[in-house]
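#struct-pred
JK: can someone run the complex with PMV? inputs below
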Amino acid sequence: MLKDIMKKVTVSAPGKLMLLGEHAVVYGRPCIVTAVGQRIRAMVELTDQPVFELNAPDVAVVHYQKPMSELGKGDLPKGAKFMEVAIKNFGVRRGVKVTTASEFSSQFGFGSSSASTVCVIKALSELTNKKLSDKQIFDLSYKTVLDIQGKGSGFDVAAATFGGTLYFVTGGKVIKPLNIKSLPLIVGYSGIKVDTVTLVNEVLEKAKKYPAVIEHIYDAIGRLVELAKKAILQSDWATLGELMNFNEGYLASLGVEGPKLAGMIYGAREAGAYGAKLSGAGIGDCMLTLTPAKAKKAVEQAIEKAGGQVIDVKANVEGAKVESSD
Ligand code: PMV
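RT: done, structure tokens with the ligand placed:
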């Protein structure tokens, strides 16, 4: 009997939060990232018309269509380009229809573009029976992100693909899952949107002007990530919190702390957090704190008092997975 050919699959992938090591990870140092339990879902279908069709209402893309032969060409709308280039890079002979839905706002900086890229690549791997390994899904998704952004360590792609909490080195040179049960995180959203590549470039300008100083900062961040890895594996939250505070100091010296995040971070510390820092490129998006249960309420209030919004986030969640198929 012939095996049924799968025509439609829904894949989900998690968002991410950088725990430690941002910016330095762009330049060969390690970081630690955790996958967060707000997921992106992509329903992907192979069709007989050689057309790419996308519906992504969360990013205001409705009924976007393009001939498969034109993928990646011309002006690509923001909400469509990652998926369009992902499909081009995968190399599909038929038409592809994608519908996405997100459990989180693309404003939070949880990595919705990378997560949707991973969803589409994994879905195509299932539909075409290529059965790519997780590392191959990572590699192709990371290539897609680099094709579009030109820059980036790939930590967000790794979190979306593998899930859990990862020790990660630039470009996926090392992707090591850290086996932990939970992380007592509280996440605060600043309400400020920043462009990651712009901030990475600003830090690069500083590094050109003060190469020796910035290299030392990257090395120091790399070393504290190594210590943080040990602390995480031992669930030593007090040490991890202290290391987060150290990390924040270095990020401030790179110029990416910003007054809004600083208010939220220092407020959280004063209210009893083990530690608090920004997460990601800085200036905006989110901050996170590691907090003892008894201080949870006070820390949440401090974040709100500083103008932040506390977001309910589950850390250390599962990576990309098939939700359903037919
Ligand atoms: O802004 P986010 O959440 O995408 O994080 C950027 C983290 C950087 O280290 C600054 C860049 C990168 O690709 O690792």
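RT: quick notes.
The mean pLDDT is 95.
Residues 18, 22-23, 25-26, 109, 152-153, 155-156, 196, 200, 280-281, 285 surround PMV (CB under 6 Å).
JK: thanks, will look after standup
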